[in-house]
Design a protein that fits this description.
The protein contains five helices and eight strands. By secondary structure, it is an alpha/beta fold. The chain has a single domain, classed as 3-Layer(aba) Sandwich (Rossmann fold), CATH 3.40.50.300. Helix 5 links the parallel strand 6 and strand 7. Bound molecules: adenosine-5'-triphosphate.
């Protein structure tokens, strides 16, 4: 879409050019480039150690770049890259003594952003991941898959256009994978972008693939 005047409001494009990242003093990624616009999805594949998590962490701003550029076109001056993304790591990052609802309320408050019509209330987000019945249960008493589903519900309570998902299906049963596929489809329909590192099919329609590891 060359003319910004034709872009719908909220349109964004993530652009990555010539990215290089090191872990433990060793170059893991080099010369990496791609772009992703509103509504699009990218699946990152590669063997263990290929650099999938490294790429997501670098995009989230959690690892320094050796070189290269990461930019989000369409962002306003007030929008820092970190405020435009959610990073779902391997760890769920939940507070064990708090209930599912309290975790989501904490998260929404912590991010402290202006309400967005695309953000869901905690109760609704829990409904969307099929956990409304466990809303008041302390997270410490939930299974690995239930915790993963709460971590996914966190993506819904504050709308952010770019989802960086590291093995999002880990610990999910078949029904939860179907729910996740639906959530990702809806996020894209709202103008969101998804980059997911995975070893498994995610049910993402028309997703492009970035295969890492040829030189690592
Ligand atoms: N904390 C760390 N310190 C040093 N090196 C690390 C660290 N984490 C990962 N690495 C190295 O970086 C390389 C890429 O790891 P990364 O976790 O990005 O791979 P991955 O493709 O996500 O693997 P997996 O499929 O096993 O999750 C590996 O060679 C790994 O040994």
């Amino acid at each position: 879409m060359p003319d910004s005047g034709l872009r719908p409001s909220g349109w964004r494009r993530l652009r990555v050019d010539d990215l290089a990242v090191a872990r433990g003093g060793r170059r893991v990624l080099a010369g990496l480039g791609f772009s992703l616009a509103s509504g699009e999805a990218l699946i990152v594949t590669g063997r263990n150690g290929a650099g999938k998590s490294t790429l997501l962490r670098a995009l989230a701003g959690l690892l320094p770049r050796l070189s290269g550029h990461i930019a989000i076109e369409g962002a306003t001056e007030a929008e820092e890259p970190a405020t435009l993304l959610h990073y779902l790591a391997h760890a769920d990052g939940l507070k064990a003594p708090l209930s599912a609802r309290e975790n989501l309320e904490f998260w929404a408050q912590f991010l402290g952003e202006e309400p967005d019509r695309r953000s869901l209330a905690p109760a609704e987000a829990l409904e969307r991941v099929g956990l409304a019945h466990l809303s008041e249960t302390p997270v410490a008493m939930l299974s690995a898959g239930q915790k993963r589903r709460i971590a996914l519900a966190r993506l819904l309570v504050v709308f952010r256009p770019l989802w960086l998902l590291d093995e999002p299906t880990s610990a999910l049963d078949a029904a939860s994978r179907v729910r996740l596929a639906r959530l990702m489809m809806e996020h894209r329909a709202l103008g969101g972008m998804i980059i997911a590192a995975t070893h498994e099919p995610l049910g993402l329609e028309d997703a492009r693939e970035l295969a890492l590891g040829a030189n690592s």
